[in-house]
């Protein structure tokens, strides 16, 4: 283990970010660090602006390596810097930020070092990049508390694994860990699935049943795809979180529940809040702590420890250096739309195959669709052709198998819908 770790540790012990100061008229300057500051009209925002032209959750700011990331959260009237409407941009020089009728000042600060610690894992999670080490440190601090956590990130970045790891590092670890996928709650049964029902409460309710919240009593409930929670359930969930008691469908009595909530979303909840699809009070109640998992393409230094973990898990630890070499050389330009899940799949196959050139060719089809071009042209060109052939065939088959349903394609491919759409466009395929 240590040869790999020593190498990565020597490379990246430090994380430097460039923050700044936000100047809000009539208030003390606010320091912008790596945790996001949300600006908006909602009273739960970090900076509350009493301005009718400002959206409930308007935009957010946080420090990154090159400067402060300013991100509009789908506001109605937009976020402007120097007369330019900004959806997302990095601020590196003094400027004014216009939101609604309000003008805020921004001043950059010098780069500073963020304490990231040396932890290269947290329970089942591994990673040696500064951002992941910083997250592991935060998670270690927050896990033993009862704070609820919102984990965001693209598909396959490890959101559910974070929830499990938090549960395992909390005083609730001996209690249940219950997963509820909010995207697949069938409408009529939704309330009963969450809070249970009495016998005879509705047709088919032949016996009294507990819901996910009662099942998670003294443990943790993981609300996956929180952004998909049906609107009619949102006030009910909010009440349960505030009052810590639930009422079964068909009952008038409340039962106390002691549950810690960890939720995850791939969706931009800022936009959902501003369009009224998701309640901001529920968001802030759940997002007492926010954990944002970066996509794998932005933390490629995590590939070696992740591959190592895979090789160990399948009982082939000695294959680690080979598989790391294979992936870092042949997939150097690949942006891993399926993130760690995709890497785990590729690494498991690669590690299970025998060593050597033939094995490499057998692994490449994961990227290249089996059409590994003969070694007559430059490697990069051969790879480009093979990858193109694979993508085209993969997405053509996917369109056929799902009848062109983009959500279904995204689910099956394990990637975001916008990635699916981009591939369809690239190969002239049409969705429904
Ligand atoms: N940091 C990590 N260390 C080790 N394994 C990881 C890490 N991150 C993700 N994985 C692995 O990647 C796979 C996907 O992780 P997970 O299901 O937690 O992702 P997710 O973000 O919840 O995905 P989705 O949004 O599609 O539900 C799992 O096999 C998980 O074990």
Q: Give the mean pLDDT.
A: 86
Compute the number of strand runs: 20
Strand order of the largest sheet: 2-1-11-10-7-8
Portion in beta strands: 15-25%
Write a structural description.
With 432 residues, the chain is an alpha/beta fold. It folds into 4 domains: 99 residues, Tumour Suppressor Smad4; 163 residues, P-loop containing nucleotide triphosphate hydrolases (Rossmann fold, 3-Layer(aba) Sandwich), CATH 3.40.50.300; 65 residues; 49 residues. Helix content is 36%, strand content 21%. The chain contains 16 helices and 20 strands. The longest helix has 24 residues. It is globular. The N terminus is likely disordered.
Task: Considering the chains and any ligands shown, give keywords for the structure.
ATP binding; 6-stranded antiparallel β-sheet; about 425 residues; binds adenosine-5'-triphosphate; SMAD_FHA_dom_sf; about 35% helix; nucleotide-binding; globular; 5-stranded mixed β-sheet; Homeodomain-like_sf; ATP-binding; Rossmann fold; Tumour Suppressor Smad4
Break the fold down into its secondary structure elements and pairings.
Blueprint: H1 2-11, E1 15-23, E2 30-32, E3 37-40, E4 47-48, E5 59-63, E6 68-72, E7 79-81, E8 84-85, E9 88-91, E10 95-99, E11 102-114, E12 121-122, E13 125-126, H2 130-142, E14 149-152, H3 159-168, E15 177-181, H4 190-195, H5 212-215, E16 219-224, H6 234-243, E17 245-247, E18 254-256, E19 259-265, H7 269-274, H8 280-286, E20 289-292, H9 303-313, H10 320-330, H11 339-352, H12 357-363, H13 365-368, H14 379-402, H15 406-413, H16 417-426
Parallel strand pairs: 3-4, 14-19, 14-20, 15-16, 16-19
Antiparallel strand pairs: 1-2, 1-11, 3-5, 5-6, 6-9, 7-8, 7-10, 10-11, 12-13, 17-18
Helix pairs in contact: 6-8, 9-10, 9-11, 10-11, 15-16
The structure holds adenosine-5'-triphosphate.
